[in-house]
## 1
Amino acid sequence: MDIILIAAITADGFIARHENDPVTWSEDLHVFKEQTMGFPIIMGSNTAKTIDKELEGRKIIVVHRDDEPKMILENIKAKKCFIAGGGRTNTMFAPFLTHLYLTIHPIVFGKGIPLFTGLEEQLFLELIKAVDVVPGKGIIQYQYKSQKKKM
Ligand SMILES: NC(=O)c1ccc[n+]([C@@H]2O[C@H](COP(=O)([O-])OP(=O)(O)OC[C@H]3O[C@@H](n4cnc5c(N)ncnc54)[C@H](OP(=O)(O)O)[C@@H]3O)[C@@H](O)[C@H]2O)c1
């Protein structure tokens, strides 16, 4: 199964200003919808609270601090699933990621929630594709393959 982290990030690597900050600044929602449609999406409890609309057509799995990521993934019967933040949840699933889809936005927060909160190991990535998310604005989604272990 492909386990794909998907995120909108600032030019300085943040995904939010603080833990309850809804992502109102991203310009890749149409791509997020297209790419995740029909597949399970895993997110942390803080992120779930920031989302006001149902993500139709996708099963949402909300994870908590005591959840065992390996077990959650083993219970998913799909060709792929998405890890959709926040920073703590991305770190929880980091050892299992097969891909990272990162859309870099022309904004700097200076501080906030990083893509990975407290990640202690390095991930080694290989660029496999760049998608022009907003033509003419230079907003690109970089699709990487992770060299970390796969399920
Ligand atoms: N830009 C993007 O693409 C994007 C995507 C997703 C999210 N976000 C943003 O990310 C932010 C949320 O990120 P987040 O990292 O705060 O939250 P999160 O990963 O969404 O959820 C927090 C997770 O960490 C656990 N946790 C909370 N406190 C903990 C602690 N002290 N020790 C260990 N685990 C703990 C929670 O478990 P419990 O439920 O047990 O507390 C939950 O599983 C929001 O502002 C959201 O908008 C941005």
## 2
Amino acid sequence: MKALVYNGSGSPSWETIPDPAIESSTDVIVRVDTTTICGTDLHILKGDVPAVQPGTVLGHEAIGTVVEVGSGVSTLSIGDRVIVSCITSCGACQFCRKQMPSHCQAFGATGWVLGNLINGTQAEYVRLPYGQTSTYRLPEGMFDAQALFLSDIFPTGFEMGVRYGRVQPGDVVAVVGVGPVGLAAVATAGLYGASKVIAIGRTRPRIDKAMVMGATHAVSTMDANWMDTVLNLTDGLGVDVAIEAVGVPETLDQAFRIVRPGGHVANAGVHGKSFSLPINDLWIQNITFTTGLVDTVTIPILIDLIKAGRIHPEVMGTHHFRMDSMLDAYSVFEDASQHNCLKTVITR
Ligand SMILES: [Zn+2]
Ligand SMILES: [Zn+2]
């Protein structure tokens, strides 16, 4: 089969490798029908994720069709169409049983296994360990691009941003960063009754997209007075919940600067650098701070919300490619702002 292979650092290659085969009784082999590229894949290419070995197929998001099942798989059959979770869950370890498969013990320290510790989804086929507890059935009538971003981005914004941020009815919520994860937080903050959802970003097209996806206000940090604008929207008090969705110290600092006493800062961005927590200012303000890797346990809720027409994840799919143009998809995504690209939709 063809697959997108990480070569150590620099450019990946689209090359022929052996088809995956069942290795364990709980394995499922899925034909990848639709996949996408994540910001995390770009981090891997830059060498920021040393656990990824050269030769690994990248990708942890997909919609696919089951083509083979191990002898221990009872709830999936050949031909079933599934949403592949970016988190592999054994369903039995202490963390999986606590609805926290991000720390599934089956492979050691993390449930993020696909395109990290083993071959991932940017390929014609993928082997999914613990396939029946790491996939969700694609509902009849739902098209791939509607559900594709439920593999990772939408649950990340919803779980790490909105749920960890404990958004309550009436809250003013700010989302710092309007890339895919930030937009997913914007799109789901209203579900808990936020009175205002302030999208804070830099570039215009993305801030405008936030308004389409559910933001009530859009603020650009290119404007020198952006913080005053945010404070004016909250009677000068600051926001109840500030969700950080970029993953750099600068935006995390912005989130801490706009939150009111008693408020929450929820980190949903992928951070590669340490950050000096201003604890001397925070303790006296009763601020709580949460971090986390997505569990994807909200995928069933998000499926129901798509069915009900409450969320529309497909609007994030701005650029479409065929799988044999995978390298073109990478070059567009690597230069996403130049191309006004949010997420790619890559079909076989
Ligand atoms: Zn991802
Ligand atoms: Zn587990």
## 3
Amino acid sequence: MGQGLSCRIRDDHGLFTAVQFGDLEIVKTVLDRDPSLLQQTTVYDRHSALHIAAANGQIDMLCMLLENPSVNPDALNRHKQTPLMLAAMHGKIACVEKLIQSGANILMFDSVNGRTCLHYAAYYGHSDCLQIILSSARTSHVAVSWGFSRFVNIRDGKGATPLHLAARQRRPECVHMLLDSGALVCASTGGYGLPGSTPLHLAARGGSMDCIRELLAWGADRLHRDASGRIPYAVALKHKNGACAALLNPSSAEPLVWPSPLKFISELNQDAKALLEQALMEVNRERERTILKSTGYSMPSPSHSEATTMDDNISEASDSQLCCICFDQLCAIEVQDCGHQMCAQCTLALCCHNKPNPTTASLIAPICPFCRSNIARLTVVKVKVNSVDQDLDLYSSPKQRKSRKSQNLSEGSSSFRGLSFGKMVGRGSGRVSLDNEYIDKP
Ligand SMILES: [Zn+2]
Ligand SMILES: [Zn+2]
């Protein structure tokens, strides 16, 4: 739109063209000669100079214009779009930031589809702009008057939330960010109890595997029916998104779900959270590979390097402890306050449930599988930098490793459904614990 924005401008005085190209000198000269020009708008779309600066990312121009007290940061064009909406639409992050600092209202609706700046950022996939708007919403008057979660789930004229738009337009980063900020994964465009589409329906239509993966990991319902009575699987088939349909087929394996409603998750530190998210995605990707293989679809493009990055991090920590539950991964997560450690996958299996049931969802805080104490916090195990001094520290003692392994056999398996424990029996059996420090008391 950058160039297109001004193509229909009748610009006798040259102001709008100069704004578009960021020519500060010309703009100053023109406005010195006739300050009233600042109130002029383009003929057809009725863009103000501020709209043009915002849409074209002319940050210096935008700052200069905003210094003038007669310039309204929430000026409306023909479609009731604000400069902030245009900046969010075009991904002009500096302009979004500056406009919000200057008091632009994030809770304005255009007259095209009744959309806010948050809808624009989500629709066009500008996750950086989305982030700025969300953090402004947390602190601004909007949080007080509207409530933050209501803002995140704000509907446009057709009932679509920003999450619907991001899912439809194949914007996985925005989908993730919105879900992380409390967007309702099951929101229906219907509203008032009427049937409508969920974000999963729209992702099935858009055909983005990444979006579908995110939504499923957040507990999206594969059986929800839209206004035509279709489940997301049917929508994916209709739009010939075969691989997506395979994942959405209700008869394929249930994905592991991120336990967002659990209270303790808010007490996760950021590193631990990121690690668990990676682990969850990795487990689900494994499941996808199986599903896709059996249906004859191959994985689309070698996706994401997250998983390998994580593996690299872990393999560096050569003296880390092997997880006592799966004997497969290294310990990455530490339970507090007890200090027991396990790998990210096992932590997830402990806290995740395979099939969320909203009616009976029990919000019982998870407990440590080793000592049964409540989990107050999860932190990332500090990886020791390969230092030369190989002190016999607590966590590399073979004696303890052995004791934890054997201790694990007596329990754990029941609470860790959803993961494969093929290796546990083979590697852990036959060991006898001589050290009862970690043995569980009934
Ligand atoms: Zn494990
Ligand atoms: Zn413990």
